[in-house]
Structure formats: structure tokens, C-alpha cells
Design a protein that fits this description.
single chain; 724 residues; FAD/NAD(P)-binding domain; 60s Ribosomal Protein L30, Chain: A; 37 strands
Length: 724
């Protein structure tokens, strides 16, 4: 169970979602470290399981079957998840640089970021595809398949360079997937005498039989000197003509460990001792491919990464408790299973080998069990013995400390306007604002409890959410004030959280040309954020919710579904793709939609937020004789939202919105989940507008329906899509 904010005093940050860290998070879900808050930073919410990559390439598995959903795993295990790319770190200052974000501070950090593709061969960066990192290869493979479909029927040659276990599995998987492509030849190019050097004879023979049966052309003793647009050139001078070249050679180390001053080994990998601890920096641990165990070197193999997780967990616990660390002990011999393309596999241990379809089924069961242990894991609500949290005073205004405020606010990006004298600049009790003559003041306040531990993004979303009210009235944002209630916590942790959320707020305000003019900060049981947005609009240019006319088109600037996706995320049940799409939508300002609408001269505008599309549409129709005809198939929906609604997932506000359905008729044959989608409360939702002309409507908007005279019918009717 995650430590409460008041209990947590120190930060453990895990960088990278490799196998070791995924298993570590699972263990932390069952046995958290007292007083320690855990954060995972990963470039992607979906991380591949390398053992199933050949099966994915061959077409035996789907994407979701072979990828670990890190966001869901973190949610279920009480670990904070931040999606971002590490660009560097400062081990002296205990700070991590994350692209496009404020730095993250840590007390202890562990790296499991994998390796990088070795593209040192001349021409490799321009003309080859690297298998490492595995997380990127699926996208490249999909691109190659799309290119193949679009190519002419001329004969083509694809080649894989490297005949280790990864290269053999990959080329056999490719050959199986492409077996029906007439005129396509697959090549395996390697510098050794035979494939799989170092493997038992039985395994080598099985692989050679599979390669021959698949019709793969072998090029032994062929050391590649360069990659060209037309293939590869060998050191001996010969050339092998290829249309596509895939490198499955040993990967290389990233450059940031050396730049940060860490001890490195074997070409730049993080040097770690027998405890998986950096040999130069005791507050740094590393595992998986990015680490090099200098006292007991091992190949970069997933089997070792998996077995490092228990030791990493124990030593993290011991480090925080200031106890002696325990050494990692890895066995010399282990079961090795290699896929052979057509749902066959070969396996070996202690020199004994076996091959057949039954071996593939054995491997498949092991792989699926591993994935289920992570993707289906739910530790439940385990009870812990908790000592009473210290009492926090509320009579003092619950304020955060002045040094924390001043140090953070001084570093934030800001918009400056002559008409606004922000409280950030001078120690006044309130901000001063001189309105533009002839324009009316527009003010709105919006806020919510933090729905994610990614407070930087929550800060951005809160601004976009609040400013939508201004844009819906055609008001130009001028300034904003912010109230933040931070969850109780240790002062150092609160300082980091405050910087994250305020950085998100400030950057979103800058993007909307809006001044941060002041605010208030408090602390409490949970983190809350509220933004008061101020703007201006000419009296004769105000947009209102009402005023739509018969024949108007209804247009919407953002897809629906954030409510149900966020509700599922809180229980760790939101698919990674759905969460990524929800974030993309919530982090998109309605400023572009507002500017586009200014060219359309809309008759009515509102924003879709807490009352869902149906509730806000009914507000638009209030006191009118209009009815709205929505096209069911035209409604933009975030991926996975309807699936979640169809199994009963919904926001806790939906039951209070059910009376809206009394004013809505949904035609037969339409997905029943659509009725709940209409009620789904939106965070940072889109602008809903009634416009008379859609001929010049930009892609910012989707046409979802049309208005007509009511004639005694329900105010809203949902029909199957019709052509405009």
C-alpha cells in the first residue's frame, strides 16, 4: 500500500520500464518500503517483453499481449507514473533532467533504461533499422510492413545482420510473417562460422533446419563494413544487395552515464557492484542492459534482468534502512528457449537440447504467465500498521512556507502585460488589472482534486480547463490566479511537488498568453488545484450558450471519454493507449479552436466539461424551440472509452446526470454504451458550437449533428450518421 503523503519522507525514482523495474514495482505493491514515495519515469507507458518480440513479429501475438502496461501496473501498486524521456542527470544534486519538464529530485535512483542501437557502422543511421531498443522496434517493423504493402511487385531482399539468439529468432519470425509475399527473399548475415555461436550443437542444428525450411539465405563469415541505401558492404569488399537492412548486433551504451560522471564499463554501461549499486555513486542503482556487473559480468540477456529484481528490491529496502546490502547471486546455467518462426521452438539447459511445437507451447505458457503476473496483478488493499500522522494546523491558513513559494515562483516562465501588475512581482495583497476601455471583464473559476500523480501535467490541464470558459465566451485571456492545496508531506517532497505543479501551470499560461497574477497555497489531506481566469471581450462580440438557429451545424473540438478513462485509471484498469489519448486531448488548449471559431461567427458556444456533452447541449437548447439531431457514428470518441463504458465503468458523477436522458431519444441499433458517453464528464473538454456554415470549417472541429425546429419531439435525438 502506498505510504500516505504525511508518512513519505524520501523519494525513490525508477528510471526506465525494463523487466527488472517492472518486477520491482510488483514487489513494491506487495511490500512497500515504509516512508518512501516511489516514482517511475518511462519514455512510454507500454514497454515490450523482449521474450515475446519474435512472436509479435511473426504474427502469433497482438501488441497488447506482448507489452507491459506500466501506468496500470503503477496505479495498482501505489507507484507514481511519469511519462517522459531522460535527457541527463546530476548525481551530485540528486536531480534528473526529463525532456520538457522540470527536474525531478531523488534520494535514491535506479536505472533500467535498456541499451541503445549500435549504429556506429558507416551508413547505419541513414539506411538501417536497429532492433535495440526493443521498445522502438515494433514501430519500425510496422512501418516496414506498410512500405512493403505499398511497394511494387518487383523482387525484394530484406536482410538481418547478426546471428546470435536475437538475430536468428528475428529472421525466422520475419520469414514466417512474410511467407506469402511472392518475390521477397530474406537474408541472414553474420561474421561467425555458424549461427548461434556458443550454443549447444542440438540447438544450432535445430536453428539451421528451421532457417533452411524457411528459405532464408545465409551469409556466413560475412563481416559488415558499411550499410548503404542498396544493402551492405563487407570488409572483404563484396556487396550484398538489400532493400531493407535490420541490425541485430550487440547494442551500445547510452551516453548520459558517462556525461554524468558515473563509473562505466564495457563501452559505457553503468558499472555496478555485486549489490547492483553504482561503483562510484552509492545513491545510484542500475539493472538490466544499462548496467554492467563488473565483478560478475554476464551477457545482456532478459533472464538475468528478471532475476535481478528480488535483489534490487531487498537492497533498496536495506539502503533506506541503512542496513548492509546483500550480494546478487546468479546461476551459471539456465533454461534457454528460442522461437523458430512457425510456432516451433528449441530449448536447452546444461547442454541438453529439445525441439518441437511442444517446446513452443512450453515457452508460450512461460511467457504468458510472466505477462499475466504484471498486467493482471492487483495487490488489493493490504492493511498496514500505521502510526498516527502528525497534526497539521489549519488555523494558520494552512499556508506553505514562504521560502518554498519564493524560490519556486522566481524560476517560473511568465507573461508580462502593462495592464496587469502581478502579485508575483511585488508583495501586494492582490493583483492590479486595468481593463481595456470599451471591453467587458470576464471571470471564471474552475478546479478539481488532482486526478494523477503527474502534477506537472495536472497543472497544465487545470489551466486549459479553466481558460476554456473564457474561450467559450470569445474572451481573450488576460491573467489568472491559482489556488493550490498540496497534500501533507515532508517539506522536501512538498517542494518538489510544488515546483512540478506550478511549472505546469506557468507553462500553460505562457502558451495561452496569460499572466500569472498571484494566488494562494495551502496544504491538506489531498492535492487540489483551482484556477481563476480573467479575460476581456467587446460587448458586441460576446458568445453565449443560447442563440442557436434552426439549420445550424453542431461542431465539437475535442473527442469524448476522459471521464470514464480517468475513472478506470484510478483503479489501474485504463489501457495505456486510452490514457495516452486522454492526456493528448486534455493537454490541448482550446485556443486554436477559439481562433478558428472567430472566423465562423458562431450563433452559440459552450465548453463540454462536468455535465457531459448532453448536459451542456441541453443548456444550449434551453428556452428555445430547437431540437438537436446527433449523428452517433460521427461523435469523436477517445480510444477504449466505449469499451470501458460497455463493461460498466463510469465516472462517479454520471448517476447524478441520468435525468438528462429524459430529454434524449436514442434510435434502436445504436451501441447502448453511447448513452453513458453522452453523460461522461469531461476534464479539459472541447468547445461545442452551433454554426451556420461548415464549408470552411478547419480540422480542429468535428461535425456531430444539426439543429432543427423541435415540433414536440425530445430536445435531443441520436441517429445513425448521415452525410452532411
Amino acid at each position: 500500500m502506498r505510504p500516505t503523503a504525511a508518512e513519505a519522507e524520501r523519494d525513490l525514482v525508477l528510471v526506465g520500464g525494463g523487466h527488472t523495474h517492472a518486477l520491482l514495482i510488483r514487489r513494491l505493491g506487495m511490500r512497500p518500503v515504509p516512508g518512501v514515495r516511489v516514482t517511475l519515469v518511462s519514455e512510454s507507458a507500454m514497454t515490450p517483453y523482449s521474450g515475446m518480440l519474435p512472436g509479435l513479429v511473426a504474427g502469433h501475438y497482438h501488441f497488447n499481449e506482448t507489452h507491459i502496461d506500466l501506468n496500470r501496473l503503477c496505479q495498482r501498486c501505489g507507484v507514481r507514473f511519469v511519462e517522459g524521456r531522460l535527457t541527463g542527470f546530476d548525481p551530485q544534486a540528486h536531480r534528473l533532467q526529463i525532456q520538457g519538464r522540470p527536474d525531478l529530485r531523488y534520494d535514491l535512483v535506479s536505472f533500467d533504461t535498456g541499451s541503445t542501437p549500435n549504429l556506429d557502422l558507416p551508413g547505419a543511421r541513414e539506411h538501417a533499422v536497429g532492433v535495440k531498443p526493443v521498445s522502438h522496434f515494433h514501430d519500425e517493423w510496422t512501418r516496414l510492413l506498410n512500405q512493403l504493402e505499398q511497394s511494387s511487385s518487383r523482387p525484394m531482399h530484406w536482410g538481418v545482420v547478426g546471428a546470435g539468439a536475437g538475430g536468428v529468432e528475428l529472421v525466422l519470425a520475419m520469414a514466417h510473417r512474410l511467407r506469402d509475399q511472392s518475390g521477397l527473399r530474406v537474408h541472414l548475415i553474420f561474421s561467425s562460422e555458424q549461427v548461434l555461436p556458443g550454443y549447444p550443437k542440438g540447438v544450432v542444428k535445430a536453428a539451421e533446419r528451421a532457417l533452411k525450411a524457411a528459405g532464408i539465405t545465409l551469409h556466413a563469415r560475412a563481416r559488415v563494413a558499411a550499410v548503404t541505401a542498396d544493402g551492405v558492404t563487407l570488409e572483404a569488399g563484396q556487396a550484398i544487395a538489400l532493400d531493407r537492412t535490420v541490425l541485430c548486433t550487440p547494442a551500445s551504451a547510452p551516453d548520459w552515464p558517462d556525461k554524468a560522471g558515473l563509473d562505466t564499463a564495457n563501452g559505457g554501461f553503468i558499472a555496478v557492484n555485486q549489490y547492483l549499486q553504482s561503483t562510484s555513486h552509492p545513491t545510484v542503482f542500475a539493472a538490466g542492459d544499462v548496467a554492467e556487473m563488473v565483478e560478475d559480468p554476464r551477457p545482456k540477456a532478459g533472464v538475468y534482468a528478471v532475476r535481478q529484481a528480488p535483489t534490487l528490491h531487498h537492497n533498496i529496502e536495506r539502503w533506506f534502512r541503512q542496513q548492509p546490502l546483500e550480494p546478487l547471486r546468479l546461476q551459471r546455467h539456465f533454461l534457454s528457449l528460442l522461437s523458430l518462426g512457425d510456432q516451433q521452438a528449441t530449448g536447452s539447459r546444461n547442454g541438453l537440447a529439445c525441439t518441437g511445437r511442444w517446446v513452443w507451447r512450453w515457452k508460450d505458457r512461460i511467457d504468458r504467465r510472466f505477462m499475466d503476473a504484471l498486467n493482471e496483478f492487483n495487490p488489493g488493499m493490504a492493511q498496514t500498521d500505521e502510526s498516527p500522522a502528525p497534526m497539521h494546523c489549519a488555523g494558520c491558513g494552512s499556508k506553505l512556507g514562504p521560502d518554498l513559494l519564493q524560490d519556486t515562483l522566481a524560476d517560473l516562465p511568465q507573461v508580462q502585460k502593462e495592464s496587469v501588475l502581478p502579485a508575483l512581482g511585488k508583495a501586494e495583497d492582490a493583483s492590479l488589472w486595468t481593463p481595456t476601455p470599451g471591453r467587458q471583464i470576464v471571470q471564471s473559476v474552475d478546479g478539481f482534486r488532482a486526478f494523477s500523480d503527474d502534477l506537472y501535467r495536472v497543472g497544465q490541464v487545470s489551466v486549459h480547463h479553466a481558460l476554456s470558459d473564457l474561450y467559450a465566451m470569445n474572451a481573450t485571456p488576460v491573467s489568472a490566479q491559482v489556488w493550490i492545496n498540496l497534500a501533507f508531506g515532508h517539506a522536501r517532497l512538498q517542494a518538489g511537488d510544488f515546483r512540478q505543479v506550478m511549472s505546469g501551470v506557468a507553462e500553460a499560461l505562457v502558451a495561452n498568453d496569460c499572466v500569472l497574477a498571484g494566488g494562494h497555497s495551502t496544504e491538506g489531506l489531498e492535492t487540489h488545484l483551482s484556477v481563476t481566469a480573467n479575460g476581456e471581450v467587446a460587448a458586441n462580440e460576446i458568445w453565449r450558450k443560447t442563440g442557436a438557429r434552426p439549420g445550424d451545424w453542431l461542431v465539437l473540438s475535442k473527442p469524448l471519454g476522459t471521464g470514464v478513462i480517468l475513472a478506470a485509471d484510478m483503479t489501474g484498469d485504463a489501457p495505456a493507449g486510452s490514457m495516452a489519448a486522454a492526456w493528448d486531448s486534455m493537454l490541448r488548449s482550446n485556443r486554436e479552436a477559439w481562433q478558428a471559431l472567430k472566423q465562423q461567427q458562431p450563433n452559440a458556444v459552450t465548453d463540454v466539461t462536468g455535465f457531459g456533452l448532453l448536459g451542456h447541449l441541453l443548456e444550449m437548447l434551453q428556452d428555445s424551440q430547437l431540437r438537436a439531431e446527433l449523428q452517433a457514428d460521427a461523435l469523436p470518441v477517445l480510444p477504449g472509452a466505449l469499451d470501458l463504458l460497455s463493461v460498466g465503468r463510469q465516472s462517479s458523477l454520471v448517476p447524478h446526470l441520468l435525468p438528462y436522458l429524459n430529454h434524449c431519444q436514442i434510435d434502436a441499433g445504436i451501441d447502448p454504451a453511447l448513452s453513458h458517453l453522452l453523460l461522461d464528464p469531461q476534464t479539459s473538454g472541447g468547445l461545442l458550437a452551433a454554426v451556420s456554415d461548415i464549408a470552411t470549417l478547419p480540422d480542429t472541429f468535428t461535425v456531430i449533428g444539426r439543429l432543427a425546429e423541435r415540433s414536440g419531439l425530445p430536445a435531443v435525438r441520436v441517429i445513425r450518421a448521415t452525410e452532411p
